[in-house]
Amino acid sequence: MTDETPSFRQAIRSVLAAFLGVQSDKNRELDFRQGKPAHFIVAGLLLTLLFILVVWGVVKLVLTAAGV
């Protein structure tokens, strides 16, 4: 085990795993022990925004296809 701080890319992967519900307890504990909170906050906000945009896009596509 290293004492390195996880990179922003690793924070995004960790937040994405948490979003999907597949984050292991080991990785979650490692994130809390070694990660920078700012990385996880920014990654969470970005992925939340991306999720909202994808849902909005799908709804717009479905409504357009339905002729509404």
Name the average pLDDT: 90
| Low-pLDDT ranges | none
The secondary-structure class comes to mainly alpha
What profile does the largest beta sheet have? none
Number of helices: 3
Proportion of residues in β-strands: under 5%
Q: How many domain units?
A: 1
End-to-end distance: 56 Å
Total strand segments: 0
Shape: elongated
Order of helices and strands: HHH
Describe this structure in words.
This protein has 68 residues and is mainly alpha-helical. The protein has one domain (8-66). Helix content is 78%, strand content 0%. The protein contains three helices and no strands. The protein has helices at residues 8-20, 25-34, 37-66. Helix 1 (8-20) crosses helix 3. The chain is elongated and about 55 Å long. The model has no long low-confidence stretch (mean pLDDT 90).
